[in-house]
Amino acid sequence: MYLKELEKVFGHGATYRNGQEKAIDRIVKGERVLVVQKTGWGKSLVYFLATKIIRERGDGVTLIISPLLALTRNQIESTEKYGLNAECINYQFNKSIKAKKEIINRCNTGDCDVLFITPEQLQNKGFVNLLSELKVGLFVVDEAHCISDWGHDFRPDYRRIKSLIDILPMNIPVLATTATANDRVVNDIVTQLGRCEVIRGDLQRDSLYLHKLELPTSKEKYAWIVKNLKNMNGSGIIYATTIKECERLAIWLRYNGFDAHAYHGNLKEEVKIDLENQLINNNLKVLVSTIALGMGFDKEDIEFVFHYYSPKSIVEHYQQIGRAGRNIEQAVCVLLYGGEDESKINEHFIYNSFPKEVHINLILDFLKENDGVKLSTIEGNVNINSSIINQIIKLLLIDGFIEKDSKNNYSCSLKLYNSQQNYYESVIEKKILEYNELLEFQRTEECQMMFLTRALNDSNSIRCGNCSTCLGRDWSFTEDNLTTNEIKNVSDFFEMNFIKIDPRMKTSKQGKLEYTYQVGLALSYYHEELGRLASDGKYRTGEFSNLLVKASADKLKRFLKEKNINIEKLVIVPIPSNRRPQLVPEFANRLATKLQCFYAHILAKRENEPEQKTLLNRTLQEQSIRDYLYIKEDIDLSNYHVLLVDDFVDSRWTFTVATELLCEKYDIITVTPFALADTSGSD
């Protein structure tokens, strides 16, 4: 039916995979289709080839809602082989309405065939109005599981898509695609798309050789990864939960001679593009990534995907291992799991995936009393975590309970709020069940591929014959036994590696700080051995052990030497606490004795200071520190290097404000923070 069109792109003898031609036919006939097919099946071929056919008969452009910039860049490159011209509008580029209007004009005059936009663009009324001028021939929702509240990558802005679909003429075809939707998610997507045909295939991936291994500690996981990377010939991806873990693991791999880099949402766009290209061209061994390099990233010869952590669901796991083995016969995918904090981290993300009713009411009550206020004003008056405030504001805007004017002031709308809490709680409950399903996957003794595909409601699930469960003793793709020396190498690295405390450059109101501290040092992460020892000292024994003093002194000597800081001109200043007034000062004094440097207990806090951890957003945290921290004793620290010492670091506001106080009063050479443990952890 459409074989000639396929051969024009892929050459004589090219054939469709099962279901592709059917999907194209439905689209060309103006119908609505949901395609649920395994990763690597060729979902993008369907909408690009359909676009080519639609454009050749003179219809409008294809508008694609795509969730990730990495995915969009990847797909724009793919359009070239179809002879299509593509443009993209996202938060990184095309920020002016004028620039966006020029792109819309190019689409309407035939200079552009495909327009990619991220869902966040739909919150801009000006852009949505501009979008109404676009001549659309095909509307595509890529990674459509994001439409669903049940989907593992749900984003509130995807809910705006339904309103766009509702106003499309019924003769405009709509295509939604995903590889990771179980029955529950499929039904939800169909409800939001309206009438549509579901084209669903089997999810079996014969090229993937699956393995899972329980390793309870970071040291064991680090040792295993290095040992097994030596046996992987090509390039691949290692998924980790947090940005800091990605960065440290990448450093460890480089330390062992592998060309490895961290990839996450905090990188500059040009850096991410460069790393993606290096991976695609096999110019590096591995990217250690958060979920930022997940959905739809298309590199045909990824030979391995390792999970340093357990994903939050079967669908997330299947999505990520789906990056591997797309056009090669064999790729190894390994889930490393274990450690008591792993479940805590995942459960934290799940339970905080939707806001609590009490927080929603706090924001609504504030807006009722204060009409037309900025986001920073809300933060400064409502004690809720900044990211949760942003989440609530977005949900309330989408549902029309609040409004935003052209100056970004927020007000309550005339629409009365009706509670969504029961619905949110039901979704969270289902997410917990899905996470428990992933934990069951860790324990299962049946075929791993069959377990995954059955959990995704694939009625054709069969034993793969390739995974470590199926092969048993014949599994030979990884070496799982670790020696004492291999673990010791990681311990030595942890001891030598610096966990850095980066300076804040702006206040919570985005004004530039006049004084900033130098890059500082944390002895450990909170969940690791020394971090737990510090927690035990603070909350159980009431003092920090000599082991912590020695470990801190040893690490600081190396760190200060690298920074060219003369210990003879170093003065240690403890961060004060009204609740445990002696804990940090006594530790800091012992540390000063060990380092043979000066000690000055000159900072104090006024009485009745609220506990920092009870203040949940950056604005309140900063303001509290400014209100209560002061210099109690006038000891001239001019021409000294100051080492600010605290037990734990999270928001960094205490170090930031203490630096300002000291630098305003004294002519200090540098200020460097030090903490026993970094508790910030999450992205």
UniProtKB/TrEMBL annotation:
Coiled coil: none annotated. InterPro entries: DEAD/DEAH_box_helicase_dom, DNA/RNA_helicase_DEAH_CS, DNA_helicase_ATP-dep_RecQ, Helicase_ATP-bd, Helicase_C-like, P-loop_NTPase, PRTase-like, PRTase_dom. The lineage of its organism: Bacteria, Bacillati, Bacillota, Bacilli, Bacillales. Keywords: ATP-binding, DNA-binding, Helicase, Hydrolase, Isomerase, Nucleotide-binding. Its EC number is 5.6.2.4. Residues 217-370 form the Helicase C-terminal domain. Pfam families: DEAD, Helicase_C. Residues 24-199 form the Helicase ATP-binding domain. This is DNA 3'-5' helicase. It catalyses: Couples ATP hydrolysis with the unwinding of duplex DNA by translocating in the 3'-5' direction. Belongs to the helicase family. RecQ subfamily. GO terms for molecular function: DNA helicase activity; hydrolase activity. SMART domains: DEXDc, HELICc. Transmembrane segments: none annotated. It is an enzyme of class 5 (isomerase).
